[in-house]
Structures are given as C-alpha cells and as structure tokens.
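[Q] Does anyone have a clean structure-token version of this?
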Amino acid sequence: MFFVLVIEYWNLRFICHLVLGIWDFFLVKKRIFIYAIIWCGFIFGPQNVIAEKWYKVRWVADGDSIVLENGRQIRYIGINAPEIEHEDQKAEPYGDKSKTINQNLVLHQSVRLEFDREKKDRYGRTLAYVYLRNGQFINVEMISRGAAYFLYIRPNTKYMKLFIKQQQSAMHSRKGLWQDWKESKAEYIGNKRSRRFHLPTCPHARRIKSSNRVHFSKKWDAFLAGYAPAKNCLTEWWSR
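[A] Here you go.
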C-alpha cells in the first residue's frame, strides 16, 4: 500500500509539472505574439502606411504634382520633372511634354497614395507614391518614360534603387528628355550625402567634405549614377 501511494504521488507530481509546463509554454507564446504585434506596429507604423482610399485627380499642375478633387496637393516622391512656364520663369526643355504625359496618365483617374517617412514638403504639399487602379506606379512611370529624373530627398528613400534603375534604363534607351542629349566634357562635383552635383565654382561644392566628394566629367554620368543637379548652382542643368 505504501509503495502504491508513493507511485501515485510521483505520478500526480509529474502531471502537475506537465500541466504547469504547458501553461508556461502558452504564456511565453502569448507574450511573443504580443511583442510581434507591437514590433509590426512600430515597423509598419504611420510613416509607411499604404492608404487604401481612392481619390479622383482634379488637376495636373506639372510633371510631378497633382491636385485631388478634395483640394489636396500631391507632390510625387523621388522624382523631379522639368519646370513648366511660370510668371517669373521660362519653361525648361521637355517641361510641357512632361506635364502632358502626367495628364494622360492620371487626370480624372482614381489614384491610391502610399506614404513614406515624411508626409509633407516645405510648401505643405502631401508627399506620396501614386498608383492607378490598374497597378501602374506613376512615380516610376514618369521616370521610365524619361519625363522626370530621380531626385533623392531623405528620409523618403523607400524606392530609391528602383527609381535609379528605371532612370538608367530610360537614359540608355534615350527616352524623353534624354533623347537628344549631347554635351562636352567638363567637371562636376557630386555630394555623396545629398546626391546633388555642382560646378566646381559653386560655393556649396567647396564646402563638400573630401570623403563625400565624387567627380564626374559629364552631367550624363552624374544622372546615370542617381545624382541630381543642384538647382542653386546649375540653373540651366539641361544646357549642352
């Protein structure tokens, strides 16, 4: 009888430990699940939200900005189109054509917006990646057609590699603003940090640290590497 009681005691103890072990396991799993939800909320937070709403485009301002029916002004992230004519500024080459391409793509169409880390520019416009219902990625479309060039602006760099790749393809195919490109060799200084290129005489070029300097003999090479002209230095970046 004594031995039977001892065996039953150890069996009971084993079962209790087993039950407690299973309970602890599920508690750990529950904590991991909660932590995973918190982590996902942090990684895929508001700065990277893809809005599921669709908006109608009321007006196309130029090759890189639009106005929605609700009056919201949208600036395409990661690209820059040649300027159209303003009151105090003449149109840049291919500026009107770029606007027309943008109009043909999005005017009166429904678009979806995807945001990056920074949602507004200094003019109060909403910064966004823009998509059509058929899946067309408008920012990419403008670059791939040679209607705009890649413009690096931190911290919105989510599709930087894709944009540069599309620009290189458009340049090699001589599309859009690249079709009649001709220039003589010269000297340009790029800033690895800002991904802008300058004339050597530009005051901003002189302030670039040697570790951040990169030299180009043509503007074409700078664009091909994903650098954009510093507008305060190269006001006529298209000139040959």
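[Q] Thanks! Anything notable?
[A] The two ends are 105 Å apart (CA to CA).
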